[in-house]
Design a protein that fits this description.
Blueprint lengths: L3 E14 L3 E8 L3 E7 L17 E9 L4 E11 H4 L2 H17 L7 H13 L5 H18 L22 H7 L1 H15 L2
Parallel strand pairs: 3-5
Antiparallel strand pairs: 1-2, 1-4, 2-3, 4-5
Helix pairs in contact: 2-4, 3-4, 4-5, 4-6
Length: 192
């Protein structure tokens, strides 16, 4: 009998696999980025389908197979696609898509998970300019955590504060051009 692992996960992407199954790209708190197969997740009556939607934060139960992880359960914690307005949803999708492309291999990196979950939690409470700055900070911090940027990350991984001129978002708004240049350089260095 295989051991079951439970962890929190962000669903970065999902790809159809067969008639009713999916392979989900999950950024997990305990195992890093993994690909997991969910049998029957595309059925309308599937219990796990809500917890396996792109832009969902879920508590998942996983089984380690010979070649791939398998989903044994998924309980939806937050469906960010429903919580965010259209503009914020596009920002979140861009950041999670980039994370899916940049993060390689299975290794625990709680900082990456914290960066992205904090970013998602901050979006509904921010103005459009602050959301733009939060998107830049999330990408910059992700690049820093992956080792392709060594500059200032404008605070802690979960700091998307606003309100004062010294806040992370205010500083990012002020330094927008420099941040975009650093992000573009980091993406180039990553080899994408």
């Amino acid at each position: 009998m295989r051991h079951k692992y439970s962890t929190r996960a962000l669903v970065l992407a999902r790809i159809p696999a067969g008639e009713e199954s999916i392979t989900a790209s999950l950024l997990t708190e305990d195992f890093g980025l993994i690909r997991a197969r969910s049998q029957g997740a595309r059925k309308g009556s599937a219990k796990m389908s809500a917890g396996m939607q792109t832009l969902s934060e879920s508590d998942v139960t996983l089984l380690r197979g010979k070649d791939i992880w398998r989903m044994a359960g998924a309980v939806l914690e937050t469906n960010w696609a429903r919580e965010l307005d259209a503009a914020a949803r596009k920002r979140a999708a861009r950041v999670l898509e980039l994370a899916d492309r940049l993060i390689r291999g299975e290794h625990a990196d709680p900082e990456l998970f914290l960066i992205l979950t904090s970013f998602l939690r901050a979006l509904p409470e921010r103005t459009e300019d602050e959301q733009d700055a939060a998107e830049m900070l999330a990408v910059l911090r992700m690049l820093h955590a992956l080792g392709v940027d060594a500059g200032d990350t404008y605070g802690e991984p979960d700091d998307y504060s606003s309100g004062s001129e010294k806040s992370a978002l205010a500083r990012a708004i002020e330094d927008r051009s420099a941040l975009i240049a650093r992000i573009n350089h980091g993406i180039t260095e990553s080899g994408l």
